[in-house]
Amino acid sequence: MIHFSEFTLSNGLKVIHHRDESTPLVVMNILYKVGARNEDPGKTGFAHLFEHLMFGGSVNIPEYDTPLQQASGENNAFTNNDITNYYLTLPAQNIETGFWLESDRMLSLAFSSESLEIQRSVVIEEFKQRYLNQPYGDVWLKLRPLAYKVHPYRWPTIGKEIKHIENATLNDVKAFFKNHYCPNNAIMCVAGNITLERVKELSEKWFGPIPAQPIEIIELPAEPPQQKERRETVSAKVPADAIYMAFHCPGRRDPRYYAADLLTDILSRGRSSRLLNSLVKEQKLFSEIGAYITGDADPGLIVIEGKVNQGVSPEKAEMGVRAELTKLMTELVSVGELNKVKTKAESTIVFGEMGILNKGMALCYATFLGNTNLVNEELAFYQNVSSTDIKKAAVDFLSESNCSTLHYLTERA
Amino acid sequence: MTLNRKIAPGFGHITAFSFLPVVASKTDGGVPCYFINGGDEDVVKIDFIFDAGSKRQHKTCLAAATNSLLMEGTRQHNSLELADKLDSLGAFIQNSCSADDATVSIYSLNKNIGLCLEVINEIFNEASFPEKELHTYANTQAGRLRISQKKTDYLCRKAFYASIFGAEHPYGRSANPEDYLNLQREELASFFFENYSANGLKIICSGKITEDIQLRIHQLTFKNNKLQSNLPRFEPKPHFNKKQFIAHSESVQSTIRIGKRMFDRTHEDYRPMQLLNLILGGYFGSRLMKNIREEKGLTYGIFSSLESFRGDGVFYISTDVNNDSRASAVNEIYHEIERLKQEPIPKEELEIAKNYFLGAFLRGLDGAFLQSEKAKTLIDYNLKQEYYTELFKIIKETDSDRLIYLANKYLGNNDFYEIICGSQ
User: Fold this and answer.
1) Which of A72, A311, B180, B261 is the most exposed place for a label (fewest CB within 10 A)?
2) Is the confidence metric ipTM above 0.85 for this complex?
3) pTM assigned to the model
4) Partners of residue B298 in chain A, C-beta under 8 Å
């Protein structure tokens, strides 16, 4: 159970407070409701590039990191398809430094062209290091456009191609800031050894004067239901054939999300899970295999990915997966097996929320989804899933016609 | 009153660290155990640390395989039955094996810890290392290793340790896929018998610790009380050639690692060297990050690290850059090292580094689980709690002269190994 209070400033900034007197620290987490899905299809990778530019100095403060480090603080940020999330940790006594820094960059950036040039090359190196210089590193660059034809989830956060990052201009940066970075498009959580009164006082002082901005809400195109299976085969210098299967499934706000999530747990959570025992240990089709749900705000994907054993054809390996999926569509899972994944979900929630940083992030994300108290209600949603719900989820989501399959094969010379 | 956003709010300095008490006791059978009680959540973490690291193996991968296969069958239960029990309890089990030790950690909800400990105790007393589970494990690990062997950072790291310690030394050794495939179940069983003994075992328990949990831990029984053999002395056989280029065709980036042998954390200069390391490449505001990432944009990241093993250690700088930026990145790295030896560190930079250092340490003490890691370090190296209280004082007192002295003493250019992996 996470106790919290919420209030909203007159400029629309949502603020959440969680108190923990056992820590000497305070965390400030700020979620901006903008991610790669909000990008122009011709300018992808921009939300993430922008995240880098948020550290290049703001209107009144030439450098973000130095004053924070001076006050014994640490920070970082991440971007995904839905959100951009910034967080910092400071000794409790120094938290005002965080309010000062974060409010100034919400107010306005320095927009230096030098910073753009540098961060452009840093991000290009990141693109190479994480997506191109790793075996299978570019799989999401291939899988996303196979699974999505319309919705902006069809490109990854890093962007469709390096070219889009190369082409970004300072005007693009300014426009992006104006459209997305404002108090009425942000959620802030201050968690740790700090009182609610102090959070209110500091929020009013530093964030209160920042004007709200008109935000143009652009309705994102919904991905139409997939009618028939999609396949693609690629090859590269990788040591083993790999199979990726992506199925459309509900987003994080859909009540059916919880059954879909537990479905992937039955498939691959823990050493007793089905895919490992059947396909790796018994049938020896794969050297490893996993299943997970992307957990996006809009309808996302259930993904099954495995490395095929040498001497096994990818077709045969895929049939093995299919057979396991068919079982889930035709047979009810036992109460014991279902309870097992529910208990695991419970301990994942408990362990996942240890520490004030995790709590701060979870609170902001739940608010983003529309209900801050989801952090406390979520467990009940998992506990209410029945064996029939699991079977229905399997029938609804794991059919062949709902699947995009990518065979990522070893290049044969 | 208008707000002046150009002026930073005042801030205070960290004046002390506060530690949760580490309560030492022994199980009824005499195994040392340590309890670190803290936190509101009803969860607990228990580390079982055996003197069964790869220093004790006579065959590559044997120690790691034994550690992983512990969970894969006992005389009474097969792998699936064990996994099913632990998963049903919502427990997370983590196996890890280093050159120095082998650890099994359980994370459990308090309400299920009793049943978890029963399973764990059965495993430690009766692990059976089934042939078919070994086969699966070896196949999976070999597959993963083949993937790693395609990565420039992996190849570079491997060559670095082998160059400094020699490929036969526990800190320099690395595996090939065949090493996993050549393991025999009898070898695992005998490694287990020789080394998973209550004699070398230590237990660290952290989280919300109730009397019941303490009692259950004290009542654990370990049947194997074998005295382990003395470890042989491992002499490093460093590579004569300090510069190595590993060709990896088609890589779009090169990994660079420059570094040397150092000492472990009990050395008198280790703690001030941690500060020097931080200034050079230990945080986002470091000189290397500022120069090579934030000014030149050559890389996504560059860092330096001081790594302690028991009785030994290394210091290194590592980064990934474009193939054609290799030479300039290497030059800049040496340039930054040279500056540490020549120029006093500006007062403000030193203050920021110290404040950051102490802040990072404070974050590392947030909660019982993190504090248990600090306690483990003290236990591993036979250090007293004062080690960390002194650290606070040492960081406060280390001045620029001292750092220049240390840079000259330990960062001599001729000592550095320079390993680069990328395309020609």
Assistant:
1) A311
2) yes
3) 0.95
4) 121, 125
